[in-house]
Design goal:
The relative contact order is 0.15. By secondary structure, the protein is of the alpha/beta class. It has eleven helices and 14 strands. An eight-stranded parallel beta barrel has the order 1-2-3-4-9-10-11-14, surrounded by seven helices. The chain has a two-stranded antiparallel sheet with strand order 5-6. A two-stranded antiparallel sheet has the order 7-8. It has helices at residues 21-33, 52-59, 79-92, 107-113, 121-140, 198-206, 217-233, 279-291, 305-322, 335-339, 347-351; strands at residues 8-12, 38-41, 67-73, 98-102, 147-150, 155-157, 167-168, 173-174, 189-193, 209-212, 242-250, 267-269, 272-276, 297-302. Helix 1 crosses helix 2 (52-59) and helix 8 crosses helix 9 (305-322). Helix content is 36%, strand content 18%. The chain is globular and about 65 Å long.
C-alpha cells in the first residue's frame, strides 16, 4: 500500500556514556536543525551513565522544537513517579515530551532494588501496559482549567476539576489525582518497540509511536499491518498510530550502488536491522520504503553518534528535503503536532460533559 502519511524521522543520541550535558545538547540541537520529529535517549538499569529523563530535562531549555523521548523502565519503578516525571518533562519542554517504555527482565537488575525477583517478559509487559494506562489517567486527573490562581479568594485549584484515578492493575494500584497539572500535550507521546512478542500487545493498546525491526520493506509492512489490526481490536483508530522502522546506521563507508533483488537494504545484525553505507544510499532506502507503505518513517540509531548523526542531518535528511520527501520546518510547537497526532480529550471532562 503506498504511503498516505508524511514521512517522520527520529534519531537516538545515546551511545557510550557521557557525563556532561553539552554533549547531549549539541546532538539534540543538530537533530533539530534537520527538523527531525524527535530524539530518543536510551537507558536501562544494566548500563552505567546518567538518567535519560533527567538528561533530556536539561536539554529541553536549550532546544526549541524537537521532541525529547527518554527511555523509562517501568519495572521496579513506581507508576505514579513515572507519570509525574514524564509530565514534568512535557512542562519543561513546553509540550515536546514523550517516553519510550521498557522493561527489566534480569535477576541482576532486580537485585539492585531488592524489592522482588525477576519476572517473565510477558508479565512485565502487562505491567508496562498497566503503567501506561495509569499514566494516561493521572495526566487526565487534572482538567485543563483546574488551576484557578485567584489571589483575591485564595483559591489555587477548582477541586471539582480534580479526579481520583482509582486504577487497579495486576501488580499495583493508583488512586491519584496527580501532583503535576495536566501536561501541555494532554498526554505526552508514548513510544513502544512493537516488533513482536509480549511488547506488541502493549504497543497496540497504548503506543502513539510503534518501533518495528525489519530487514525488508515487506516484513516491515506486515508488522505494521498487524500492529494496526491489533490496535483496531482495542477500539483505537489505526491511523492515530505512527509506525517507524528502527534502523542502526553506520555511515562510515563510501556510497555504494544498491544491488537489485530481495537482499538489498539493511542487514540483520545484533538483534535488529542494520544499515552500512553512505548518506545518499540511506536516503534512497528511506524514500523507497516509505513510498511503498512499509512504514510511516524511521528511527535511526547512529553507530557513532558524533559522526553519523551529522551525516544523517547534513546528508540523508538534506537530500530527502531537496526531493520534497521530508519537511524543512516544524509544523507546530509540540511533538504531537510534529507527528500529526491530535491532543487527547480529557476523559473525566468528557464524562461530565465539560469537553
Amino acid at each position: 500500500m503506498p504511503a498516505t502519511t508524511a514521512l517522520h524521522l527520529a534519531a537516538e543520541i545515546g551511545g557510550p556514556p557521557h557525563y556532561d550535558a553539552p554533549h547531549y545538547t549539541a546532538l539534540a540541537q543538530l537533530a533539530e536543525r534537520g527538523s527531525l520529529d524527535f530524539v530518543t535517549l536510551g537507558d536501562s538499569f544494566a548500563r552505567p551513565g546518567l538518567d535519560a529523563l533527567a538528561v533530556l530535562s536539561r536539554v529541553a531549555p536549550a532546544t526549541r522544537r524537537i521532541g525529547l523521548v527518554p527511555t523509562v523502565t517501568t519495572t521496579h519503578t513506581e507508576p505514579f513517579h513515572v507519570s509525574s516525571a514524564v509530565a514534568t518533562l512535557d512542562w519543561v519542554s513546553r509540550g515536546r515530551a514523550g517516553w519510550s517504555a521498557e522493561v527489566s527482565t534480569t535477576g541482576a537488575e532486580a537485585r539492585l532494588f531488592g524489592r522482588r525477583p525477576a519476572a517473565p517478559a510477558a508479565d512485565l509487559w502487562r505491567e508496562a501496559a498497566d503503567t501506561a494506562e495509569a499514566g494516561a489517567r493521572l495526566w487526565d486527573s487534572w482538567e485543563d482549567d483546574a488551576e484557578i490562581r485567584d489571589v483575591a479568594t485564595g483559591r489555587f485549584i477548582d477541586r471539582a476539576k480534580l479526579h481520583y484515578v482509582d486504577f487497579e492493575g495486576a501488580t499495583f494500584t493508583v488512586r491519584g489525582p496527580a501532583i503535576v497539572p495536566r501536561p501541555p500535550q494532554g498526554h505526552p507521546v508514548t513510544v513502544i518497540d512493537g516488533t513482536g512478542g509480549p511488547s506488541q500487545d502493549a504497543a497496540a493498546r497504548h503506543a502513539d509511536v510503534v518501533l518495528v525491526r525489519a530487514t525488508t520493506p515487506e516484513q516491515a509492512a506486515g508488522i505494521r499491518a498487524e500492529v494496526r489490526r491489533r490496535a483496531a481490536t482495542y477500539g483505537r483508530d489505526p491511523d492515530a498510530l505512527r509506525v517507524l522502522v528502527a534502523l542502526t546506521v553506520d555511515l562510515g563507508d563510501a556510497e555504494t550502488a544498491p544491488e537489485p533483488g530481495p537482499e538489498s537494504g539493511p542487514r540483520l545484525a545484533a538483534g535488529g536491522s542494520y544499515y552500512r553505507g553512505g548518506p545518499v544510499d540511506l536516503a534512497e532506502l528511506i524514500g523507497q520504503w516509505h513510498r511503498g507503505g512499509a512504514a510511516d518513517g524511521f528511527h535511526l540509531t547512529p553507530l557513532t553518534p558524533a559522526r553519523d548523526l551529522e551525516r544523517i542531518v547534513n546528508g540523508t535528511v538534506a537530500l530527502l528535503q531537496h526531493r520534497s520527501l521530508f519537511r524543512t520546518f516544524y509544523p507546530g510547537g509540540t511533538l504531537r503536532e510534529h507527528l500529526g497526532l491530535t491532543r487527547p480529550a480529557n476523559r473525566y471532562a468528557l464524562a461530565e460533559g465539560r469537553a
